[in-house]
UniProtKB/TrEMBL annotation:
The lineage of its organism: Bacteria, Pseudomonadati, Pseudomonadota, Gammaproteobacteria, Alteromonadales. Residues 1-19 form the signal peptide. Pfam families: DUF3016. This is DUF3016 domain-containing protein. The keyword Signal applies. InterPro entries: DUF3016. It comes from Shewanella halifaxensis (strain HAW-EB4). It comes from the Bacteria. Keywords: Signal.
Length: 174
């Protein structure tokens, strides 16, 4: 009987922890010269957590991508310029697969048939004036072969995709 009560108490405690995990509809991340609105992440192609609470995983993912993008954008943009983006779709490299109880978490399998993709609109502002704007739909089908294999940073494929876009599209047009 005590075990039954402990199980019920454990379930109630864990469900209340999940209930406090709030979901932000269109989260906005901002770092330095970059501001990103993540429009309706629940409809993104693949931002699936393999072992964390989904909203925490999304928050961490969006913050990491914004931080990395800011690092690259700060090298390209002039001090008075700012990059604003509205991301409408994100597909992280790889695919999440269930382990069917072999481990407590699912696994993200990264293979060349699951490339990173991101769709967004952007504008580069100088003060209040828009000096460049556009829509992008980026993907890198060669992502497994175009990045340093020793790089073990999280979201390395997505970060490289965005850094490459900045260097090839934004930098020459500024």
């Amino acid at each position: 009987m005590k075990v039954k009560h402990l199980l019920v108490a454990g379930l109630l405690a864990s469900s209340s922890a999940w209930a406090t995990d709030e979901v932000v509809e269109n989260p906005i991340t901002e770092e330095g010269v970059v501001k990103v609105e993540w429009q309706d992440p629940s409809n993104f192609r693949d931002v699936e957590s393999s072992g964390d609470i989904q909203s925490r995983f999304e928050k961490r993912t969006f913050e990491q991508l914004t931080k990395s993008l800011n690092k690259e954008a700060a090298k390209i943009l002039k001090p008075e310029q700012k990059l604003e983006m509205v991301v409408t779709d994100l597909d992280l490299a790889g695919d999440v697969r269930p382990t069917f109880g072999a481990t407590t978490n699912d696994l993200r399998i990264v293979k060349n048939i699951y490339p990173p993709r991101i769709t967004f609109s952007y504008k580069i502002l100088e003060g209040d004036k828009v000096i460049m704007a556009g829509d992008e739909k980026l993907t890198d089908l060669n992502f497994m072969y175009s990045i340093n294999k020793m790089n073990d940073k999280p979201y390395r494929y997505e970060n490289e995709l965005l850094a490459s876009w900045l260097k090839k599209t934004v930098k020459p047009n500024l």
